[in-house]
Each structure stands twice: as C-alpha cells, then as structure tokens.
Amino acid sequence: ENIFEWQFAIRGPQDSEFEGGIYHGRIQLPADYPFQPPAFMMLTVISYSAYNANFHSLAAI
User: Fold this and answer.
1) Which of 16, 29, 47, 50 could bridge 33 with an S-S bond, Cβ 3.0-4.6 Å?
2) Is residue 10 part of a domain?
3) What is the pTM for the complete model shown?
4) pLDDT greater than 80 at residue 61
5) Alpha-carbon Rg of the chain, whole angstroms?
6) Could you tell me which residue ranges the UBC core domain spans (predicted)?
7) pLDDT-derived band of residue 27, with 50, 70 and 90 as boundaries?
C-alpha cells in the first residue's frame, strides 16, 4: 500500500546466540529519497545486551 515503507526479516547468524531467530524490521523511505537517508527500525525485541561488565573500553578482560 505504501511504497515508502518496507518490511524485512533477517535470520540470526549461525553459531551465534541469535541462531534460529528471525528478526523483523521496517525501512521508511523519505519522500525525497535518495537525497535523504532511509530510517531503519527493528520491530523484534532482542533481549541480548552487548554490554559486559567484565570488559573495559579497550575490550580487555
């Protein structure tokens, strides 16, 4: 119905904590695309946090 809004699905990478999951999102193209960038929004809630208290800013343990 709306050519400026696209839905997508991404499969979780093999051998990762996301394996087996299907993650849905939406791409919203502005009316003046390609002169303005699209907006991406993930619709699937992911309960994974990339933050690990055992790592500092240089990724050393």
Assistant:
1) 29
2) yes
3) 0.65
4) no
5) 16
6) 1-61
7) very high
